[in-house]
Design a protein that fits this description.
heterodimer, A: 652 residues, mainly alpha, three-stranded mixed beta sheet, 3 strands, 3% strand, B: 99 residues, 3 helices, 0% strand
Chain lengths: 652, 99
């Protein structure tokens, strides 16, 4: 295990340089273009593409995956593993020069492989899952659009490109959450996701503005080279704004509320966007901006705190939910909390967070697709109290879900063990009492994760049947759905060890990543922490197994303070409602009143006065020539009188 | 030469014209009153031209005459057509264009 925690020493500071792309790597732009073209074709052709559209969508991602693997292999052989491809000037206004350019470096490469690889499997799964849905072509168009935007996000070579992709995935996420827009709950969830993301996006945008204002550029290399010369306060504000953006996209405290509601979308969407890829964009942002975050210790403390709070919160709420997809959603929130904890620790822990992100992409996608398979066989039932005993009926789903379950709780030798445990160890390596605080939180989180995931697993697949009357015989899903499940399950088993041994070294080639290791000794020895984390995992899992082996009541039960709070999302929604929503609504009402009565009253009053006045004045228009002549004469006389008066000096 | 008489004559002519326009109803009479005012103006122009020894005023008077001639042509045509449709040359009867 120890070799995981040794990192090559890259220069922590100094100039960041990227090489120009050549050969195969000069076509990395195709990675973004192929899914985008496919999405455009699917959307523009309309119903004409209904029969074959989904296969086009799958093929586009498949081709992107092959291209991604080829580029990855090409990159491996290079000396300078950061390759830049500048396509054209995106924005050139005054001093602001934004390059429409791509950066293919080790960090981007692993993301490309995750997005296209897991994305391809989920696309394949969705062909069958959405087979009976009339909007399947539209679904695949949005799905392709999402992949294109996500690839742009990770491949951009400056913050504006990242923001471009960032908004693109936000749009795709919104379209897909409210894919079944006929359902009010889905439409509302889409809006909620969009609004909460806007809060984060505003933070990211202002962060980019600050970058331009202080450094005069948004290119990664120039920003990272220049960040060392900035004042500490500026770096702190910049980092906090980037963190706000990351929190919004990744469903971290305090912007976590949208993610569980996003489960209103079709299950493949939950698997791809709201578990495996898009929600990890925040982690990518922080890992990418590591020179900024490493430059300020306070900033790192904030990131670590956000991670720790979120991971515990996700665990607690996940343990109290009864909707299979909501439990998985809260577990996603909690696991991303681990990743934030990792990136906040800095130094070598950046790589650990990325390893956990990749491993999580596999096992969480696996479990979401497994949940989709269960729902497919159970008439779209999502309440785990209404499952039970499904292991006999859905063998493949059961086995593959078990792999995901063992992986997420961090059981040896599944992937979660190799990815999560090092983060816990790293948390214990901080100085002083914070080591105990964050290490303890990570450890407690591991126990809670084991508890609620075991609860989910046991209630779904074991124990007595508690099905609703309309289900006679649950069926296993068709091959096209089980094959991705099997492949992802293999990933959940094997990926952890492979990733944990290869990725940290691979990532050291990325600018700033895997740089200086912290000098602190762990407060507990490595072996003790490993044993402890396995122990709390077994304890949590065992407790859940004991409690839920015999099934559970199918009706909501009265519960203590903590469980009630957890069922209500720890009152975070109530807090948002009381602090932001209600005053917001009051404010808008007040403004509407002011607008209607005040502003409109003023304008309308003025108009009424002018209208009334001219109604009177118009009576002068009598139609009699003589009256006009009188006015003209009077006017002329007045003018003459005025001239005379001036001439005679009366007015002087 | 003293201009006073000419100017006084012009003022008197103008006043007669103006009052005529205001109090008379027959369109033809109105027209003649307008001509009176124009010619009063012409008289002043010529007078001042003479005093200043400058031909501009006289040229101006020619312009006024040309305009007056054109005006008479068009005005009489309008009066004729109104008279043909309404059997009346009273300007008070032609008061449709109003509020």
């Amino acid at each position: 295990m120890d070799h995981i925690l040794t990192y090559a020493q890259a220069e922590p500071t100094g100039a960041v340089t990227y090489a120009a792309a050549s050969g195969l790597l000069s076509s990395v732009w195709l990675l973004v273009a192929i899914p985008l073209v496919s999405a455009a074709i699917l959307l523009l052709l309309g119903r004409r593409a209904d029969r074959w559209g989904h296969w086009l969508g799958v093929a586009a991602i498949g081709v992107a995956f092959v291209l991604g693997v080829a580029s990855f292999l090409q990159l491996r052989g290079l000396e300078n593993k950061s390759v830049e491809l500048s396509l054209w000037d995106f924005i050139a206004v005054g001093n602001l020069r934004v390059d429409f350019g791509l950066l293919f470096d080790p960090l981007a490469a692993v993301f490309v492989l995750l997005i296209t690889g897991v994305g391809f499997l989920i696309h394949l799964y969705a062909v069958e899952y959405m087979a009976h849905d009339e909007g399947r072509r539209r679904f695949f168009a949005y799905f392709n659009l999402f992949v294109a935007a996500m690839l742009l996000l990770v491949l951009g070579n400056n913050y504006v490109m990242l923001y471009f992709g960032w908004e693109g995935v936000g749009l795709a996420s919104y379209l897909l959450i409210s894919f079944w827009y006929g359902r009010p709950s889905a439409a509302t969830a889409g809006k909620k996701a969009f609004l909460m993301n806007r809060v984060g996006d505003a933070g990211l945008a202002i962060g980019i503005f600050i970058m331009f204002a202080t450094l005069g550029t948004t290119q990664y290399d120039e920003v990272f080279t220049g960040v060392g010369g900035l004042a500490g306060g500026t770096v702190l504000v910049l980092g906090l704004l980037l963190l706000l953006g990351a929190c919004g996209k990744s469903g971290q405290f305090p912007l976590q509320a949208w993610l569980p509601d996003a489960m209103e979308g079709p299950t493949p969407v939950s698997a791809l966007i709201h578990a495996a890829t898009m929600v990890t964009a925040g982690v990518y942002l922080i890992a990418r901006s590591n020179p900024i975050f490493s430059a300020n210790a306070t900033l790192q403390l904030v990131v670590v705190s956000v991670g720790a709070v979120t991971l515990l919160m996700g665990c607690l709420i996940g343990a109290a939910k009864d909707d299979i997809k909501r439990v998985l959603a809260w577990s996603t929130v909690s696991q991303i909390g681990y990743m934030f904890l990792g990136v906040g620790l800095g130094g070598g822990a950046y790589a650990l967070a990325i390893v956990h992100l990749l491993a999580h992409g596999f096992f969480k996608a696996n479990m979401f697709l497994g949940a989709g398979s269960v729902m497919h066989g159970m008439n779209d039932q999502v309440d785990i109290r209404r499952f039970g005993g499904l292991s006999k009926y859905m063998k493949v789903t059961w086995i593959t879900f078990m792999m995901g379950w063992l992986a997420i709780i961090g059981m040896f030798p599944f992937s979660g063990f190799f990815s999560k445990e090092p983060i816990i160890v790293a948390a214990f390596e901080r100085e002083g009492w914070t080591a105990w605080l964050f290490g303890g939180a990570a450890l407690l989180g591991a126990g809670l994760t084991a508890f609620y995931m075991t609860r989910l697993f046991v209630l779904t697949f074991h124990g007595p049947k508690r099905w609703t009357e309309d289900i006679e015989h649950p069926h296993e899903s068709p091959k096209l759905m089980t094959i991705p499940l099997i492949l992802l399950a293999i990933g959940s088993v094997g990926a952890g060890f492979l990733l944990a041994t290869s990725v940290p070294d691979w990532l050291t080639a990325t600018a700033g990543l895997g740089g200086q290791t912290e000098g602190h000794e762990a407060v507990l020895s490595h072996v003790v922490i490993t044993v402890l984390s396995l122990l709390v995992t077994v304890l949590g899992a065992g407790l859940a197994w004991m409690l839920f082996r015999a099934g559970t009541a199918t009706e909501p039960q009265p519960a203590g303070v903590l469980v009630t709070a957890a069922r209500r999302n720890l009152y975070t929604d109530a807090f948002n409602e009381a602090v932001f929503e209600k005053p917001g609504i009051f404010l808008t009402r007040a403004l509407v009143f002011l607008d209607n009565r005040g502003v409109d009253g003023l304008v309308n009053g003025l108009a009424a006065a002018v209208g009334g006045g001219s109604g009177r004045l118009r009576r002068l228009q009598t139609g009699f020539v003589r009256s006009y002549a009188t006015s003209i004469l009077t006017g002329a006389l007045l003018v003459v009188a005025a001239f005379l008066a001036v001439q005679a000096g009366w007015l002087a | 030469m003293t201009p006073d008489y000419y100017l006084i004559l012009a003022a008197v002519l103008f006043t007669i014209g103006a009052v005529g326009v205001l109090v008379r109803r027959n369109a033809i009479v109105l027209f003649m009153c307008v001509e009176l005012m124009l010619n009063a103006a012409n008289l002043t122009l010529v007078t001042f031209s003479r005093i200043n020894g400058d031909l501009n005023g006289q040229i101006m008077a020619f312009f006024v005459m040309v305009v007056a001639a054109a005006e008479v042509v068009i005005g009489l045509a309008i009066i004729m057509s109104i008279f043909r449709t309404r059997r009346s040359a009273s300007v008070d009867d032609a008061n449709l264009l109003k509020y």
